[in-house]
Amino acid sequence: MRNLLVILSLGSSLALAQPLAPVTVKPAWTVKDMSLLGFTADGDAVVRPRSGSIQVLDIASGHVKRKAGFPLEADGAWPVAFTPDLQARAWLAGDALVMMSPAGVQRASSPGLRGTWGLKFSPDGKTLAVWNVNGYVQLWNVTTGERLHTLMLTGQPANVTFHPTRPVLAVSQRAGAGGHVTLWNTTEGKKILTFDDLLGSPDPFTFLPGGELLMGGGLFLLDLDPGSGVGAARTPQYLTKYTEPCSPQVVWKNCLRGFRRGSVSADGQSIGMNIARTPQHIPALLIYNKAGMLQKIVDTPGYVATLAPDGRHLLLGGFNGELAGASPP
């Protein structure tokens, strides 16, 4: 495996040449008692009402377009997962893992599924990653219902993400104020790379369409070879961090606002990073281009923003359980 671009949180970033003025968005639509689960391949939102079936929602209007194809037994299940084309779906029903695909329905029951807190499909929909509070990740064959591998970790996994084109799974673990990340070959179930003692949390954590790994906020280019391990590492490059004047009660003049979570457009050209801004901790989304340059500062008072796949719309999760949509100017 060669030319895998990994984004690591390893240090400080370049300062802004000119400060950008924050803009505040107002919701174009709002629906109550609705949570965002993800997006379809067409860019629609997959949402879960407080009661009722999982649905597909138009991000521009907020109108429900159709049900997402989960059976009734999945309505109260957690966690759930789906492929963007909604052809494969999975959920945990008690201690039973249920996987639906065009090949049929597979059910697996195992004590090792207890403590599961996350499910994620591989890009081809053939493998399901199941991560667990007990310190391991299981890989399941969606077609046959067979457990392929169990990846043993040194602590609780926080998140996982599949490479878009290669048989690689990245797993993040939080460790105090920092993090720990491992990369695994999903075909063989073998660890291929470890990043220890990262400075800062590995969140946000996801592969971009081009194979870049968004992890914290820097760019780090590695040349990976299954035979010899890691090749030469290039000079890291970072997303521009956001600083602003501190409150008068703080001894420092400027305060750095750390990234809390992130989202990426479908083409990988826009990256949204969530922060809390000003001494009043206003929720905001920093929108970057793929080169790591800050393009917009979007304040979303009362909401946590997710960048939609089209890179133009925002989905806003309200603190009272509402879901809203907006477009930054």
Automatic annotation (TrEMBL):
Q: Which InterPro entries match?
A: WD40/YVTN_repeat-like_dom_sf, WD40_rpt
Q: Where are the WD repeats?
A: 119-150
Instruction: Please give the name of this protein.
Output: Uncharacterized protein
Q: Classify the source by domain of life.
A: Bacteria
Q: What are the boundaries of the signal sequence?
A: 1-17
Gene3D superfamilies, per the entry = YVTN repeat-like/Quinoprotein amine dehydrogenase (2.130.10.10)
- Keyword Secreted among record annotations: no
Naturally occurring in which organism (per UniProt): Deinococcus cavernae
Entry annotated with the keyword Signal: yes
Q: Which UniProt keywords apply?
A: Signal, WD repeat
